[in-house]
Q: What sequence folds into this?
């Protein structure tokens, strides 16, 4: 197997960099460096394929193909034109160039994007007379460039569609969590598959679905394809072996129950169809219920929920009366449970009347959020009541 090490960068939702780094170590990639928004790593080609197939937290895996210092757009053009693009893909494949930057002194990133595209196409014309065309919507090959104040780094995107697109979603739903954020929340909660899990506001079911895939050790990328499969250096035999190895690790059933519910029957239907499509419907006990009427399905367990945020005023008012009732319900019916609430609403700890033992900052896209941990414990006999305690 190829042991040459390449440099890669895996972006992820902000706040999950530590969780992604830990996951990469578990996937057999020890050489990692965490930065804001992702983790850089060095690994052989086969590890890149494995990470694409198995990572639940990365958004993509970018292959670093070159780096140079620059002062002008022409420096960027020359650096891009020096790279052996025709070794990596064919001119019949369509391309898209995406440029991002931090404190870049050049006035127009659009112009930089254009010059990189020109450099790539000129390189093809000079070597095989044909040039790739641009497709900004469904390109075969995505090229990324990142400019800091002095250096430009070029990447080929090995994932294609972002990795949170597992291929299980059916139709569009309002405000679903991204799959890699849901997987990251499960990891941050410390939930392990031998603990009972409950998502009582499951919406389209992203959290329980990710949990079921984790519990059955189903690789998240088994139902989709990846951009690296279109690169000229792709090794189809190696890829076949990796997919087979991932499949062999799958378990036939989940070790502990996964429960999901939502008060909206339409969401329950969507979740049910999604679970069926992903082959995990038997692993998730799904029902329609208001969380305020739920009893604990086991003596102990982990509850992870993602309530609406109250962006609209009426919703904010409604949530103002919802949280105190949720807090009461947890104290009455969920003693011994660990409860995790993922929300962008900073009023939650106050409204719910419980002291969080952890508050982990995260981003859901551009929205700053927190994952709050509440340990619901039985109060002393003398007090004769239940309360939540900080760790
Ligand atoms: C932000 S969405 C959850 C999205 C979900 N995590 C997903 O990925 O699709 C919040 C969900 O809470 C549900 N909900 C609101 N109030 C509820 C209540 N009192 N009991 C149960 N579910 C409720 C809504 O129907 C909605 O599906």
A:
């Amino acid at each position: 197997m190829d042991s040459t090490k390449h440099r890669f960068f895996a972006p992820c939702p902000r706040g999950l960099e530590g969780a992604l780094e830990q996951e990469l170590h578990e996937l057999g990639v020890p050489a990692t460096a965490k930065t804001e928004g992702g983790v850089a790593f060095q690994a052989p080609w086969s590890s890149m394929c494995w990470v694409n197939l198995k990572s639940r937290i990365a958004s993509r895996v970018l292959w670093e193909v070159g780096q140079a210092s620059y002062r002008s757009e022409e420096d960027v053009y020359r650096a891009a034109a020096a790279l052996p693009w025709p070794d990596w893909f064919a001119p019949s494949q369509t391309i898209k160039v995406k440029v991002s930057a931090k404190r870049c002194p050049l006035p127009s990133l659009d112009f930089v994007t254009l010059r990189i595209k020109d450099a790539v196409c000129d390189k093809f014309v000079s070597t095989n007379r044909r040039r790739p065309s641009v497709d900004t919507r469904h390109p075969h090959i995505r090229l990324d460039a990142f400019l800091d104040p002095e250096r430009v780094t070029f990447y080929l995107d090995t994932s294609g569609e972002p990795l949170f697109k597992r291929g299980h979603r059916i139709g569009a739903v309002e405000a679903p969590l991204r799959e890699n954020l849901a997987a990251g929340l499960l990891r941050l909660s410390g939930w392990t598959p031998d603990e009972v899990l409950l998502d009582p506001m499951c919406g389209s079911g992203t959290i329980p679905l990710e949990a079921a895939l984790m519990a059955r050790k189903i690789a998240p990328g088994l139902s989709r394809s990846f951009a690296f499969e279109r690169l000229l250096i792709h090794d189809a035999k190696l890829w076949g072996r990796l997919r087979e190895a991932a499949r062999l690790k799958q378990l036939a059933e989940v070790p502990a129950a996964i429960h999901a519910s939502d008060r909206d029957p339409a969401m329950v239907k969507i979740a049910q169809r999604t679970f069926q499509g992903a082959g995990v419907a038997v692993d998730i006990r799904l029902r329609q219920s208001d969380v305020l009427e739920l009893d604990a399905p086991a003596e102990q367990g982990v509850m992870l929920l993602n309530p609406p945020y109250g962006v609209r005023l009426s919703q904010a008012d409604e949530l103002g009366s919802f949280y105190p009732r949720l807090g009461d319900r947890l104290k009455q019916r969920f003693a011994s449970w660990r409860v995790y609430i993922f929300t962008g609403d900073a009023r939650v700890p106050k409204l719910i009347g419980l002291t969080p033992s952890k508050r982990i900052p995260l981003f859901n896209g551009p929205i700053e959020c927190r994952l709050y941990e509440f340990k619901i414990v039985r109060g002393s006999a003398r007090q004769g009541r239940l309360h939540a305690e900080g760790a």
Residues 379-387 have pLDDT under 50 and may be disordered. The chain has eleven helices and 15 strands.
